[in-house]
């Protein structure tokens, strides 16, 4: 049976600490991608607040309201939405990617690798589980920004059946080259689709380059953003993925007995 969906990456300049402004930007962009046929959309990392570290515990209190707006929109438009938000729990704040399928939060993933280079580990708590979740558009693997530098995480998601990797990010200059290279490598080696949504614009001392990407399992770039607010939409053809996996049999040809199995 032919399986094909339209997928989107939403990229915008996150207004630091301004939840209402960011929510309006996100909802408008999601309506636009739906008009272009997208059934699945990924938003950037911490898209409602940006990295307003010191105010995160206070800003995280807005997250239930943001999620409610997302759930309502997903139900109205019949979409699956993924993106990370600050999640407050007791005195901790997690960087959490929520998966909303038609009106319901079906699962969540808390960022595993905190970017110590920018002090994330001083302000955020780390997650302790990986996530592959079945949804109405397919099996989604979820990761956040710096996670991209840890390939073993993605191989685990692939072995657990991820068909589409959804990655939310706030990845700044000057590391555009790492971003693009690592995303393509993750797609090619794991033979899955990748949706990577980055933010753009300036937040404090950081300059974000955007360059959100939609990538096919063979590494073909299906959509690539520039440095300003935009949305990407492309068709994902699952038959293409199956053909590639049948032609180049990375899954069958692995030798874990030699180089180790995953934990
Ligand atoms: O790994 C990088 O270069 C950027 C990571 C990052 O900015 C983050 O995880 O927030």
Automatic annotation (TrEMBL):
<keyword id="KW-0378">Hydrolase</keyword>
<dbReference type="InterPro" id="IPR003010">
    <property type="entry name" value="C-N_Hydrolase"/>
</dbReference>
<dbReference type="GO" id="GO:0016787">
    <property type="term" value="F:hydrolase activity"/>
</dbReference>
<comment type="similarity">
    <text>Belongs to the carbon-nitrogen hydrolase superfamily. NIT1/NIT2 family.</text>
</comment>
<feature type="domain" description="CN hydrolase">
    <location>
        <begin position="5"/>
        <end position="238"/>
    </location>
</feature>
<dbReference type="InterPro" id="IPR001110">
    <property type="entry name" value="UPF0012_CS"/>
</dbReference>
<dbReference type="Pfam" id="PF00795">
    <property type="entry name" value="CN_hydrolase"/>
</dbReference>
<dbReference type="InterPro" id="IPR036526">
    <property type="entry name" value="C-N_Hydrolase_sf"/>
</dbReference>
<protein>
    <submittedName>
        <fullName>Carbon-nitrogen family hydrolase</fullName>
    </submittedName>
</protein>
